[in-house]
Amino acid sequence: MTGQIRQETWVSADGRAHAHTVRVVLSHPGKLNAMSRGMWRALRSVFESLQRNSDVRCIVIEGEGDAFCAGGDISEYESFRFAPETLAAFHEGEVWTALDAMLRCDVPIIAAIRGACMGAGVEIASCCDIRIAATNARFGAPIAKLGFPMAPKEAALVASQVGAMKARQMLLEAAVFDADQMQTAGFVSRCTDPDALAAHVAETVQRVASLAPQAARLNKQTLRALAAGDMAAPALSQPYAYADSTEHREGIAAFVGKRAPRF
Q: Which family is annotated (predicted)?
């Protein structure tokens, strides 16, 4: 089995389905959800589709079972890693396009992380806005043990999120960090007991999905443009274009009327 990326309506721990929240599941049974080439292509397709879906207000990404993602599917490596052309096609044409689709997605993304979060797992988590980790989560990128470095764009992404020192330790020492250490480093938003992870994720989903979806999308566009220094991006060149929008009017009217907004 080569693994799959599943997309489904998110259901909270109490069994309630949330129509505006999507659950994306990394699933590769027997391999701790290691990413195959097919999974990278599917991940890109899923997030490009979610970006176009105006009904989606929140995305939860998690691994099947007891791991988030243990890295790449090493069983595939011999078929492409030993020639620069095929290696470049993999990293630039499959891995990075999937990560970029996540980074360009304007919907808030919550990562629910338990167990192994290694290599590809750290890269995928680095694309998320809020990362909630169980105390049994472990983070690293020990690919030097396999004899290769992290691809440049992927290394830049990881370093920007875990911090320069943690990235160097992951890549140069093959260091592995626990959830508390990654929270201290600012990578993990919140740590929780494994049994309470679903409840903490549900609380976060409720908060995110109850807010104005337009505001969330515009905030992500603004933060992305600021990080890239792209002053020509609409979020920076036309920052007040939302002024006459329905959501803006509803939010103000609800506050003045002392009622809950209907977004």
A: Belongs to the enoyl-CoA hydratase/isomerase family.
